[in-house]
Amino acid sequence: MSGLLAVVCVRDGVLPAGGAEAVAECGGAVLLVGSGVSAAATVLAGVAHDISAWETDGFAPGAWAAALATHVQSAQVVVLPASPDGRDLAPRLASALGRPLLAGALRVRPDGAELARWGGLALEDVHVDGPFVATLQPGVRGAVTSSGPAPSLRLIEPDGGAAVADAVTVGVLPPDVATMDLAEAPRILGGGAGLDGHERFALLAEVATALDASMGATRVITDRGWVSHSRQIGTTGVVVAPRLYVAFGVSGAVQHTSGLGQPEIVISVNTDPSCPMM
Predict the structure, then answer these.
(1) Of the candidates 43, 47, 56, which has an alpha carbon nearest to the alpha carbon of residue 16?
(2) CA dihedral angle for residue 122, residue 123, residue 125, residue 128, rounded to 10 degrees
(3) DSSP secondary structure string, 120-142?
(4) Which residues contact 212 (CB under 8 A, 6 or more apart)?
(5) What number is the average pLDDT over the span 206-234?
(6) pTM of the model
(7) How far is it, in rounded angstroms, from Cα 69 to Cα 78?
């Protein structure tokens, strides 16, 4: 078998959060599937060196898994980003291939993966004796681009595979910034212990919504029960990758900043000019 292969779902030419990271984790080998794969391939210049792609409309993870199984079975390890579409496709693909699934990986190796468990409170190093499928958490490794021409795109036409029962998309709604997955949010307003009451976070959520941003918090806030764990940013919560991050009263503990990915802009509002977040 060959080495690692990334499988990345594409919608309208846009890569999901963690898509480029999954490609980088696999050394640049990727299979793109979805709509607008040619446009998505250009974004991977400097990250991918071997791109195959299947241009197909809609999103049908069951049918896609059945159709793609023969195209990816030669890869020892198949890696998908742990984006919403990636988490839908990965277990179906693992089932079609007859392989174990290692979900929520922070690092993937040819012989296993390092997995986040218990909401990120524990790390488990799993060894697999044979081929497997894994999902990689967005924002944990980054993807450093290099100069050079964009790699050529090799289109494939799967035969469709066996008929399978699948979900039917009845409509796609724009994301609600107040409830969307933090890992997918392009703009986040985060609050820490410097905001001294749960009512402050109710106000922060209102401000975030008004600015078309999502609200997040540090672990100390979720431990107090002021904000749900799904809004916790950091290696022990949700690993994010926003373009803009505005931190209010966040001291900047390493568990928090390590989960921020690489935002283009970080704004910190804090009365302590020497805190790590500043």
Answers:
(1) 43
(2) 80
(3) TTEEEEEE-SS-EEEEE-TTSS-
(4) 177, 187
(5) 93
(6) 0.76
(7) 10
